Amino acid sequence: MSGESQLERMTPPAEMQFTNEPPIRSRGSILGARIGWAFLFLIPLTVVITATMLSPNPAGHSTHTQLGLPPCGFLATTGLPCPGCGLTTAFTNMVRFRFIDAVFANPFGVPLFLVTFFSLPISALGFVKGWDVMDTLERFHFEKIAMGLAIASAIVWVIRVVTILT
Predict the structure, then answer these.
(1) What DSSP state is assigned to residue 67?
(2) What percent of the chain has pLDDT over 70?
(3) Residue 29 has what pLDDT?
(4) Mean pLDDT calculated for residue range 121-145
(5) Whole-angstrom distance, CA of residue 99 vs CA of residue 78
(6) Under 8 Å between Cβ of 92 and 66
């Protein structure tokens, strides 16, 4: 034995120990991190502000046409909603706390809105503290969140289409 206690041998080195704080930075400069966080804050903020300025379409879809965008081509061609049909309407309902209407518009819109909305304080904190963007996203297991959202989107779409066809 080399004089180390059993506890010292079992304790991982400091760089491998878990802390409650996301990493400050390891891959780039603070300026680069802050630019990244600024984009990750401004994009969802724009989405949320836009949702507050639109009126939800009672049909549960086509709210996006208020922005001058064309109607959904998939819906117009097939008569079936695309996976994104109703997302704008769901977001406009969520900012008004109309959860049932949001679920009616597109059930996937609710978790997507929540991820969008709660990315705002994380992005603001990352900007202020100068956290490395990629390290922080890895720390929050963003890849799992993104995969879960993608799977949820597909499942919701299949259920919506099957419901319409049956």
Answers:
(1) G
(2) 83
(3) 84
(4) 93
(5) 28
(6) no
Structural domain boundaries of the chain? 28-60+74-165
The amino acid at residue 21 is: E
Residue whose token pair is 């891959």: 27
Helix (H) or strand (E) holding 107: none
- Any idea what the Cα angle at residue 40 is, between residues 64 and 129, rounded to 5°? 150
CA angle, 81 then 82 then 87, to 5°: 90
- Look up residue 61 and give its two tokens: 């879809």
Over the stretch 20-66, which tens digit does the pLDDT of each residue have? 665 554 556 888 899 999 999 999 999 999 999 999 999 999 999 99
Q: How many CB atoms lie within 10 A of CB 113?
A: 24
DSSP annotation of 106: -
- Write out the two tokens for 25: 């930075």
